Amino acid sequence: VTDGISLGRPCCRVHNCPFPLTNHHAHFCAVHAEKEQLCAVEGCDARTQPERLTCAIPEHQALE
């Protein structure tokens, strides 16, 4: 008997990545860990600003 909620294992944000996360708070596995430093805006490969999830582009910072 369940309440209808099914939880899977925590997984890497990279689609179909077979590697486990280093811990339950991580978003990427060890293989893709460098992606943690990239802008959160899809398609932007710029590095993030300190203490931010986005790069220095003002439009991207406004989204955050």
Q: Could you characterize what this model shows?
A:
This protein starts with 57 loop residues before the first helix and ends with a helix. It has one helix at 58-63. It has one helix and no strands. 6% of the residues are buried. The mean pLDDT is 90. It has a domain at 35-62. The longest helix has 6 residues, at 58-63. It is elongated, with a radius of gyration of 15 Å. The chain is mostly loops. Helix content is 9%, strand content 0%.
Short description:
With 64 residues, the chain is largely without helices or strands.
Low-confidence stretches: none
User: Oligomerization state of this entry?
Assistant: single chain
Q: Tell me the structural class.
A: little secondary structure
How many individual helices?
1
What would you report as the Rg, rounded to the nearest angstrom?
15 Å
Gap between N and C termini: 41 Å
**What is the count of β-strands?**
0
Protein name: CxC6 like cysteine cluster associated with KDZ domain-containing protein
InterPro entries: CxC6 (IPR040898)
Organism: Calocera cornea HHB12733
Domain CxC6 like cysteine cluster associated with KDZ: 1-64
